[in-house]
């Protein structure tokens, strides 16, 4: 109690009001009870592979349930399409330049303000389970149990409240077990909670759970229309190294680590890593793995594919493994929903499903993310708020809005230095006037793996303007209505002068609003 009182003096009247409403405990009258939050975030889960968004590839009934019983955001974006930066934007409600975590080589300054800290101070129990990827130890959580770095699919190492340990099994199942165990056994049940379930899946190298290895065997995935994109008129796109044809590795990404050691790849460290991922497995895991992959390896060797046939084989192999990994994510989302339902928590918990960014499923010939193009700038966002709106929300939202929204839900004032805005009124089905009509984006990780140049840009409902900078100076402009797959860069073309001027002005306005130092260059 004295701890709470100390907090009173630090955080002001509005928080006192919210805290007093939930210290009354579970008996407090309906409507007074604070909402819990279960925030499920995957790593690299494309909206294209959630059937609530797109039926071409995956079937995800449990994730779709959130859309059916809640809302599907049709215009949800990130501020910087990379894991660490995206997580830092989400936790702080601020763009990368303001939270300091601009690329995956950064270390997060855990002493700064984050929304889990504010929630915790207001009396919430907070827990962070799974991929963290911010290097410094998590702050603002009553319980944290995180993967080390990117984490492993099989038999992953964790740091649990500071203690290093190894767990046997498959990451998505283990993270879900830990999350359910925390809700069931570890939290203080007299307090509201905010639980972050951060999966490693479906991050590279898309390793399925053993029970899912043979799924979808007969499925042939449709090749995106622009799979063989030549990147005409788009300099940065032509310079990337994230092509399925050129950069996807046979041994590392596509699991062709043969026993005879005959398959070698152009990137020795990827080949070595591919073999060491296999070597992490137990003999039982290896046996099940081999049963599935050995016939594929044998056939691959016999077929000696080249050119487009090899490219399309790689694409099918990638898609199959990715979809199998998603199947396990969906099953585990189902386990969390079942737990909430069986423990009378479903009607007092807001459930969020999202990803740290989007991902390419072969569009432009790619895997990975980073670019401000639609597939990676967008991210899935489904929210089930008890008593809230059902259906689609078309307003443009960004991951800097998650913190403000959850604080708003908890009755905690949103700090004025957060860049994001609460979309709680939208979730509640309220009419909101003056919602933002443009979004800002800034990607920094270059020089680096995949060679995507640094860029910033602005997107409105119809147009997108991007400036690639650093070792190149290249502008791109897209009319998303006429060219939704962003194949035709119209920057500098006759007739675009007026819209270009308008978008540059809008971009500068956002850079000033968020105080991005890039504007001074
Ligand atoms: C690793 C992957 C990259 C990926 C980054 C960032 N390479 O470095 O393909 O772009 O992570 O991903 S790997 O050889 O190590 O698998 S992120 O989602 O964590 O930002
Ligand atoms: Ca990611």
Descriptive overview:
Helix content is 34%, strand content 15%. By secondary structure, it is an alpha/beta fold. It has two domains: 294 residues, Alkaline Phosphatase, subunit A (3-Layer(aba) Sandwich); 80 residues, 2-Layer Sandwich (Arylsulfatase, C-terminal domain), CATH 3.30.1120.10. α6 packs parallel to α13. It is globular. The N terminus is likely disordered. The site of calcium ion has 6 residues, from loops.
Would you kindly provide a brief summary of this structure?
By secondary structure, this protein is of the alpha/beta class. 34% of the residues lie in helices and 15% in strands.
Give the mean pLDDT.
94
Total number of distinct structural domains: 2
How many beta-strand runs? Answer: 16
Q: Could you tell me which ligands this complex binds, including any ions or cofactors? A: 2-deoxy-6-O-sulfo-2-(sulfoamino)-alpha-D-glucopyranose, calcium ion
Structural class call reads alpha/beta
User: What is the top-level CATH class of the largest domain?
Assistant: Alpha Beta
The third-level CATH topology of the largest domain is Alkaline Phosphatase, subunit A
CATH superfamily of the largest domain: Alkaline Phosphatase, subunit A
- Spans of at least 5 consecutive residues whose pLDDT stays below 50 are 1-30
The CATH architecture classification of the largest domain is 3-Layer(aba) Sandwich
Shape: globular
Portion in helices: 25-40%
